[in-house]
Amino acid sequence: xxxxxxxxRGQEMALTAAVAVVIVLLSLLPMLRLVKEIAAPGGVLxxxxxxxxxxxxxxxxxxxxxxxxxxxxxxxxVLSGTLVAVLVSLTDIxxxxxxxxxxxxxxxxxxxxxxxxxxxxxGPASPFLKLFGAAPPLGTKNLLYSTSGIILLLxxxxxxxxxLLVRAGLRKLPRxxxxxxxxxxxxxxxxxxxxxxxxxxxxIMAAAALAFxxxxxxxxxxxxxxxxxxxxxxxxxxxxxxxxxxxxxxGETAFLSVLIGIIAMAGILAQEGMSRRRDYRISSTSLPSxxxxxxxxxxxxxxxxxxxxxxxxxxxxFGLVLTSLVPGYGxxxxxKTATLDNYRFVLFEHDAANRAFFNSFWLSxxxxxxxxxxxxxxxxxxxxxxxxxxxxxxxxxxxxxxxPGVVLAIASLLLFLRPIPLTGIQLYNTVWIILYAYLxxxxxxxxxxxxxxxxxxxxxxxxxxxxAGAGLFTRMxxxxxxxxxxxxxxxxxxxxxxxxxELTVSALLWSSGAETIGVVMFxxxxxxxxxxxxxxxxxxxAVTFALMLVTNLLAPHLPSGVLPWRD
Amino acid sequence: xxRLTLDHVTKSFTDFDAVKDVSIxxxxxxxxxxLGPSGCGKTTLLRLVAGFEKVTSGEIRxxxxxxxxxxxxxxxEKRRVGIVFQNYALWPHMSVAENIGYSLKVAKLDKxxxxxxxxxxxxxxxxxxxxxxxxxxLSGGQRQRVALARCLVAAPSLVxxxxxxxxxxxxxxxxxxxxxxxxxxxxxxxxxxxxxxQAEAMALADRIAVMDHGRLAQLATPxxxxxxxxxxxxASFISQGILLPADVMTSEDGGRCKVRVLGTxxxxxxxxxxxxxxxxRICCRSADIELSADASGFDGLVKRAIYQGGAARIxxxxxxxxxxxxxxxxxxxxxxxxxxxxxxxxxSGWLIPAAGAAA
Lengths: 567, 359
Description:
heterodimer, A: mainly alpha, B: CATH 2.40.50.100, 2 domains, 8 helices
């Protein structure tokens, strides 16, 4: 008997052990390494690193800037995202799915591409403004190179994030609560202010916390808009220090990255604290309430919404395309001057750009593929496992993504600066360190949809296979994987789209020969070659949109909410 | 085919005992129904036998081998147990034939042999020619048949049914019941059948285990369960038996004894060895109650009479026990009416054994 009993536990233990190893390597190890660098650099417990960091005035200025743009961007994102969510969810506005699709799209465009697009749209060299002869004279300062410019773009970038969370909350609002208030004599505005918005507090708070973490950790926008104006936030300060000082300043930057981590965590904790003060739980479930009839205001509201889409999506992308077609800085775009030379240059002539396309594509594919493969067993343990410690597992997978990307990048640098012990393998200064960081950072993007996929599957399907004699690995392969695959693969596609033009992590980890699209784009822009940067951006945005369309084909097999742009 | 033994099995979850000290022995080839209200622990019992849950104490043996016990638990995939799930649990990404042939594929059976076995199984459940269909394109009854075929193709030693008819239309249930009975007859497999429907259990089972709050209330044949319930729970649960307080007047003699109920004396069936005692209870059925034509019986008030077609549901309060309400059915011609004062007589009944008395 005991032999048969031992035999049955084997595969489960193997799976658990494998998952534990992956999580420790990807999540816990880098975080622990970072903490060690701060608390005990060189193995001795000391506060030297912390004190040095605290004494530097640059630290305080960058922290102040980080808070200003973080809070400002969050406020703008929460206001715009909530307003759009309320209008889209609670009124009888037309063309809802198209609106949602267009409004959410900026979320899938890399921040530095957004920044580039807006810079090109309003700058003195703007081919768009030149079309009307409205461009400011060359040499004029671009108004976006400023604090308010950064805040505006952060708001545009993360408004959709708030929108998604608030909209999900509004969908769960039972119609009885609204109808009871209306029966009590309240008009729609009163209902909105006294019933709907208070009940949405948890969603709005959670969205605000997420937007804050994203704003604070954002690198692309302050890098494109802030560095030219010498307005540094913590991520860009870290970048500049590392770019100038190399590994020697790693300890210093480790302190700064932990500082970002602390600011981000403070945002999350503040949200938890505020949500806990009152009970907002909605107990009943029912159909969503009847939409509010806008009546004669409907055309006005609709026009306003599409104007917003025009401003945040269409015009910037249009400006980007125009810039990519201009032969050089400041030249007006006409039928005669329009050229595809920029595309030819970045695709076929420029070595680094070539390598970047190649690197980013395979890095994204491998990261996505790996995440899908890992998400299925990890999700299995989290969603269906009986052990309690798997909740911790979930948390530790979330951590590298919840914390700003700069934190993980610095942690990876610390981890791999020296060759890996025992093997002597050197990851530093190779493309592999970027791959490692991508695997750690993006795993959760595939894990979340996979877990919701698991929650939709009847566990009896697995049990039926079990009584048919299938061991755990056989069940994984023949039953579980086919059933959760759509959700996991959708997550994988999200990873691919995100990783393809990623900049935050690779800006700190790249080396010559190991460039990514984001890095090369950034260096083109810094060198004044906006046309090339624009051409690269247009290519990645086109790839992202094409992938969105492909992913839509999976939609019928997915739990709702997996594809953010689907209404 | 194998014998199944549950030996003092207890399953505790963090805050309650789902199964408490249950011992059941199912002989090789026997059809056991596990019957009980929802939350009585019958599903946990099935999951214990299948191996999805591990026993807290006690032992489960299948065909003589200990599969759950102190030493650990044999995984479900090694138990050679078949299950027909309540919601069928057919894999949506496989065809009907792939569903049925899954266990053969897992066992790496020769493909040609496997195909033949799948064909045979399909024929056995009258689904010839539907092998290439997807489960989504089948009716409820057909899905149930596929689930049955999938389970029997592996020739399991023991088949567990988890409320298999709960999701079917009423008119389909009777025909599936026949099918299950035929399945049992044909294969001679040991079957454990979980249900909350007593008609189903009575129709199919050799023996029925009634569960209540995690405990085994009674394990008996359908007839015995109906006529000789071991306790009040079984008496009232099975066919809504009527329970009345009684005092035992005489010792058992020839399986009968004399009791006093509502001021009148009557003779009821009882277990051997019953002795006079107070505070006993008897169980009788609607058929045991009739209008008294003479002085025997007890007076009372018809509180409510609800005609239900073919019979009426009567609520009756005896004068000797104003706190009691007798609920029984009177077949047509219904003569009792709301508010009528009548005299009723109990023809016979069953003396419920004293709590703790050995079966």
